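seq:
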Amino acid sequence: MIYLDYQATTPLAPEARDAMLRWLDGPGGEGFGNPHSPHRMGRAAAAAVELARDRVAALLPPGGRVIFTSGATEALNLALRGFAEAGTRPAIACSAIEHAAVLDTCHAVGDTEIWPVDEDGLLDPDHWLESRPQLVAAMQVNNEIGVIQPMVDLHRRAKAMNALFLVDAVQAAGKVEVAQADLIAISAHKLHGPKGIGALWVRNGVDLHSTSTGGGQEADLRSGTLSPALIAGFGAAAALAKEQLAADAVHIEGLWDTARNLFADWTLNGSAEARWHGNLNIRRDGLDATRLISDVRDVMFSAGSACASGSGRPSHVLRAIGLDGSQAKSSIRLGFGRYTTHDELETAAALINTAAERQM
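struct:
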């Protein structure tokens, strides 16, 4: 099996797994304590949580605090709903290629303006000079086409409009420098950590309302007992990502060059330059991507967001960059990263290209 679906989830780093094991110990061990308990086991678990919090924070801008959540979807909901709870239905602006966790929540809590993107998938920060949103939401690295938005200019525009800036950095954290913002959502399993844990970074001075009631364990913003095991794994993955940032980037650039040559007959979706090169979204007009995925069973790849798989609807991201329904359904996404080898990529390309030729 060859895994090329890094945007859906990344392989768990061995270092993250090792960090988790101590906090999964049952009877006879001391790692299963509640981190909110006052006794020795609880204090040890709490210390592990705080160490991980520092490690995750090291991936993010200075001047804020990390609130642990169950994942990026909860983090984004906490940001948007926590902001909306502070007043009347707010004016929110977001791009047309945001994740459903942003798009659907924006529509649910605010008067939302959808900002279009060009054929490369990029926003023009100066296009909305007359807009007056109270919050702007933008995904730094798009999960479907890998396009990197002009975050410095978007942050500048948001500040000029006196709006809070929310960044979905799920595909950015641990890969590129995370943008300056007021609120940042990230997820552990997209940077070789475990599933079920994420975080919302909140800039100092930004006030949110809690969206749930309970013990208020996370700075009175989020309630529920924290999992030391998941959080320790998240922290270890974050520390490793920071340590290997440059080496990972070099490796992925090499894989990108190889992949572009292996799929030279395919059309690239989205910008080739303003892009995270661990994401290759390509198409061959007339191809049935769903059938291709079924035919190439030994290669794990996708036709877009895992969250929207099975819906039968063309990707809203591909439609937003101008593709019609047929073109969107003939597109595939290949994601690779730290643990992908060039040999795996070459074998996968041969299988995919052979199956695609057979279809055509």
